[in-house]
Design goal:
This protein is an alpha/beta fold and 242 residues long. 53% of the residues lie in helices and 7% in strands.
Length: 242
């Protein structure tokens, strides 16, 4: 296709266009507190139950059971708030299943559908509810969020910059925005916003905002070059998304 296409690599145009070098820091390691360790250990125990059930299943059921496990593990690594809200939603769904108000199914496509409709074994629903209540207690016992403390250290280091913080979940986005807004001008952006709301958030961040806390929606169709620091609060499981 050389007759029709001109290919320019970043290296080819760097000198000509003056593209600045990008600095990519190594991942920031967060040491969990003892309370966080206990919570995550219990999450892994719950996740293992669903992975074991998925290994014994086939087809659609196998995928659905595995999705429940993935959701819990990803949200537990996102934030304490995200896993706590996930557990609460799961408890509510199982209680509705137990009362016959919600029908279990394995025909699910999203994480939200999996949390509401998938169950490994309806015959031991009380045992699963007991484990979920234990998870909720452990989440509520966490008083110090070490991941958030690391974020504050990074923000202090870049206090003169406009910063974008990416997270995968809105629960985490709202949690961070609420805590950070006490001392900084914070703007939020997520996929549930209409086009004009997204543009308004972009404009506010450009004019007065110091921090943009956003889900993946901010990676599409917006010009956020006004910022010069990007923090991935959650690392995508698929590295190509970075």
């Amino acid at each position: 296709v050389k007759r029709l296409v001109v290919r320019r690599l970043r290296e080819d145009v760097k000198e000509e266009a003056g593209i600045p070098e990008r600095y990519v820091s190594p991942p920031v390691v967060v040491e969990p507190t003892e309370e966080e360790r206990r919570l995550y250990a219990e999450v892994i125990r719950y996740v293992k139950h669903y992975y074991d059930a998925a290994r014994q299943a086939k087809g659609r059921k196998r995928r659905a059971l595995g999705l429940v496990a993935v959701v819990f593990q990803k949200r537990a690594s996102s934030s304490i708030t995200a896993i706590k809200k996930t557990v609460e939603k799961r408890i509510q769904a199982l209680q509705q299943m137990k009362a016959g108000l919600l029908k279990p199914t394995y025909d699910v496509k999203t994480e939200t559908e999996a949390l509401r409709h998938v169950i490994a074994d309806i015959n031991v629903i009380d045992k699963e509810l007991e484990q979920l209540h234990r998870l909720k207690q452990l989440a509520e016992a966490v008083k110090i969020d070490n991941k958030y403390q690391k974020l504050l250290e990074l923000l202090e280091r870049h206090k003169d910059s406009k910063v974008i913080i990416f997270t995968q979940y809105r629960d985490t986005m709202y949690y961070l925005a609420e805590r950070l807004a006490a001392s900084r001008e914070v703007v939020t952006l997520h996929g549930g916003m209409a086009e004009e709301e997204r543009k308004a958030a972009e404009d506010k961040f450009r004019r007065t905002g110091k921090i943009l806390v956003a889900t993946d929606a901010a990676s599409e169709g917006l010009n956020l070059q006004v910022a010069n620091v990007l923090i991935n609060y959650d690392l995508p499981w698929n590295p190509s998304r970075l």
